[in-house]
């Protein structure tokens, strides 16, 4: 059920908002995963209300073309929150790590979307799994390899290491294999990751981590020369043009948001679009509704901040997904940190 457009932020002669396009109680959750596969969004697990100790085990499929949500009746799903997910082979939705209500996991579960069934994949020989993962990120480098960064550790120790893992996935054998990389990062939890092309005379790719700690600086978690990364992000020419026009109306800064976590991030061409989250630097009113755009078209890359006056747009633990030249916002807790949003919204830019 669509609703009226809500005013968002205004900057100079430009403005933006999240426009509701659907509303369904099945979608109300936070700290879930939301992955586009075959033109549909798969929402897996998460917390259905603030303060909940047991994560959900259900999977909801949202069709953005028809604005309809249905609960998937797949067997074998397990409760999971604070996990991450990635599509593999155009068929499997792989869920990596997360919290099951009693411990952090590093295992891989996969939804076979053709059969409509969940599978528990096995560790391959030589696997070196992390102690446990939650509030981490998984970034596709190819159709068979993910780059995993973020918190690991057991419940009692609450350890947070700056380790990075390459995770190889093999759908044919239903196996996975972690390998710890030699590089390390600042300890982060609830951050986001963006695989972006590097500007300048030596093109390539770099994986940047934003937030999840007190630092305002993005951190390079991996670099690859030209031709090494085969992953192609979704094409969104109209949205990319709109973002370019929006940042042209603002004043860029080398300084990014400090102490932001559990925000969303989507890559749109040379831009990383961050929204919402929780501020680690505030004692009160910690949930945010700000839009940040990281522009990598020139070196040095610049941040553009577009604040929002509408407190109804505050979100934490939400997700954004890019599809059909539009950026969608799904789920998340609102201003009170407890009530999950049932809305689906798209980012509207008025230039």
From TrEMBL:
Gene3D superfamilies: Kelch-type beta propeller. SUPFAM superfamilies: Galactose oxidase, central domain. GO terms for molecular function: cyclin binding. Keywords: Kelch repeat, Repeat. It comes from the Eukaryota. Coiled coil: none annotated. The keyword Ribosomal protein does not apply. It holds the Pfam family Kelch_KLHDC2_KLHL20_DRC7. Interacts with CCNA1. This is Kelch domain-containing protein 9. The lineage of its organism: Eukaryota, Metazoa, Chordata, Craniata, Vertebrata. The gene is KLHDC9.
């Amino acid at each position: 059920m669509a609703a009226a457009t809500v005013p968002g932020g205004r900057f100079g002669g430009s403005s933006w908002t999240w426009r509701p396009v659907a509303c369904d109680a099945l979608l109300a959750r936070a700290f879930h995963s939301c992955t586009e596969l075959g033109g549909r969004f798969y929402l897996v697990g998460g917390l259905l209300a603030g303060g909940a100790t047991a994560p959900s085990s259900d999977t909801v499929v949202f069709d953005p073309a028809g604005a309809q949500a249905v609960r998937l009746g797949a067997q074998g799903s397990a409760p999971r929150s604070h996990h991450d997910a990635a599509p593999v082979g155009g068929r499997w939705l792989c869920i990596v790590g997360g919290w099951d209500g009693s411990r952090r996991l590093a295992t891989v579960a996969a939804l076979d979307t053709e059969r409509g069934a969940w599978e528990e994949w096995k560790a391959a020989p030589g696997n070196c799994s992390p102690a446990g993962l939650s509030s981490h990120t998984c970034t596709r480098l190819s159709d068979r390899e993910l780059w995993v960064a973020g918190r690991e550790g057991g419940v009692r120790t609450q350890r947070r290491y700056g380790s990075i893992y390459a995770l190889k996935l093999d759908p044919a054998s239903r196996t996975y294999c972690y390998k710890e990389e030699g590089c390390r990062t600042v300890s982060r939890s609830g951050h986001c990751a963006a695989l972006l092309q590097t500007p300048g005379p030596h093109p390539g790719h770099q994986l940047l981590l934003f937030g999840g700690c007190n630092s305002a600086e993005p951190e390079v978690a991996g670099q690859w020369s030209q031709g090494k990364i085969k992953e192609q992000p979704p094409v969104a020419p109209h949205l990319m043009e709109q973002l370019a026009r929006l940042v042209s109306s603002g004043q860029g800064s080398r300084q990014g948001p400090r102490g932001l976590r559990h925000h969303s991030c989507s890559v749109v061409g040379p831009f990383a679009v961050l929204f919402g989250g929780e501020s680690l630097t505030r004692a009160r009113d910690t949930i945010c509704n700000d839009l940040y755009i990281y522009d990598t078209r020139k070196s040095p890359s610049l941040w553009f901040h577009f604040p929002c006056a509408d407190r109804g747009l505050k979100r934490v633990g939400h997700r954004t997904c890019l599809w059909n030249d539009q950026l969608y916002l799904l789920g998340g807790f609102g201003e009170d940190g407890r009530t999950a949003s049932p809305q689906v919204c798209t980012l509207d830019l008025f230039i």
